[in-house]
C-alpha cells in the first residue's frame, strides 16, 4: 500500500510539474493579430465593392424599368452576364426615311455611371449627318449636356428623335449635313436606300 501511494503521489507530482513547466502561449494576443489583418482586408474589400456597385445598382434599376416599360420602338438589355455591356434595337420611326428599318446599337456603361454618360454606337450602317461611319453619335446629352438624372431609356428616345429630325448644325458628317440642307430630296433617297440595304 505504501508503495502504491508513493507511486500515485509521484505520478500526481509529475503531472503537476509537467503542467507547470509547459510554456503557456498567449492565445488571445496571437488570435487578435491573426484575425485583425483579414478583417481589415475584408472591410477594405467591402468598401471597394460598395464603390463599384453604385453604378451596378443604378444599371440594374434601369434594366428593370426598361424591361417593364420600354420606350416606343426600342428595346435594350445586357449582352450576357456583363451588366455594363448592352445591346439595343431601334425600329426606324414611322414617317422618317428610316421607317421599316431595324437598327442595332451597342451600349457601354463605365463604372462612373451615372456620373458619366454611356457610350452608344450604331452597329447598323445608317445614312445620317449625326452618325459617322464608325457608328459614333453626335448627341448633346451623350456629351456636355449629360446629367445623372438621365437614363438609357431617355437616351434611346433622343436617338429616335434624332432619326426623325437630324441636326445638320452639329454634324459628324459634313457632306451629309450639307446635302440635307441643300438637296433634301437626294438626301432622303439615299437614306431610304441605305435603310433597305443595311437595316432590312
From TrEMBL:
InterPro entries: UBC (IPR000608), UBQ-conjugating_AS (IPR023313), UBQ-conjugating_enzyme/RWD (IPR016135). Gene3D superfamilies: Ubiquitin Conjugating Enzyme. Residues 54-200 form the UBC core domain. Keywords: ATP-binding, Nucleotide-binding, Transferase, Ubl conjugation pathway. One of its GO terms (molecular function) is ubiquitin conjugating enzyme activity. Residues 44-56 have a biased composition (Polar residues). Residues 1-33 have a biased composition (Low complexity). The active site is at residue 138. Pfam families: UQ_con. CDD domains: UBCc_UBE2E. Residues 1-56 are annotated as: Disordered. Its EC number is 2.3.2.23. PANTHER family: UBIQUITIN-CONJUGATING ENZYME E2. Belongs to the ubiquitin-conjugating enzyme family. This is E2 ubiquitin-conjugating enzyme. It comes from Brachionus calyciflorus.
